[in-house]
Specification:
The chain has 7 helices and no strands. Helices cover about 80% and strands about 0% of the residues. The protein is globular. The protein has one domain. The chain is mainly α.
Length: about 130
């Protein structure tokens, strides 16, 4: 049932984006959803939400951001440095290998952290 709710939410967000893009309406509602997630992500990891918002606007996805944050934390390398490497087309698996981190473990933890943040948001924003 939880999976169904997630899929329906994703479809609803895509629908809002599609309708607003083709009708010329503002995508403010969709941006509010994304900004809310980014704010929760920043709070969850104790990071600056304006920096994460900037990365989000540059095209970094939610799961990708979580993965990059985890690589940064596990490697003790600043997130900015990890991002610079990613901007130069470093693959996530290569970043993990460079810092002696299990890529499979990072992906599993990313999924878990994403679920935690999504659950927090669904409990505070019905």
């Amino acid at each position: 049932m939880n999976q169904l709710k997630k899929h329906l939410c994703a479809i609803a967000i895509i629908s809002v984006l599609s309708v607003s893009c083709f009708s010329g309406e503002s995508t403010d509602r969709a941006m509010i959803t994304r900004d809310t997630f980014i704010a929760a992500l920043a709070t969850h990891f104790g990071l600056n939400d304006s920096e994460l918002n900037n990365l989000s606007r540059r095209g970094y996805g939610r799961n990708e951001l979580i993965t990059l944050i985890l690589i940064s934390k596990k490697s003790s390398v600043q997130l900015k440095e990890i991002i610079m490497q990613r901007d130069r087309d470093a693959k996530l698996a290569d970043l993990c290998g460079r810092y002696g981190i299990s890529y499979d473990n990072i992906l599993s933890e990313s999924i878990s952290q994403r679920q935690t943040i999504d659950d927090q948001l669904s409990n505070t924003h019905p």
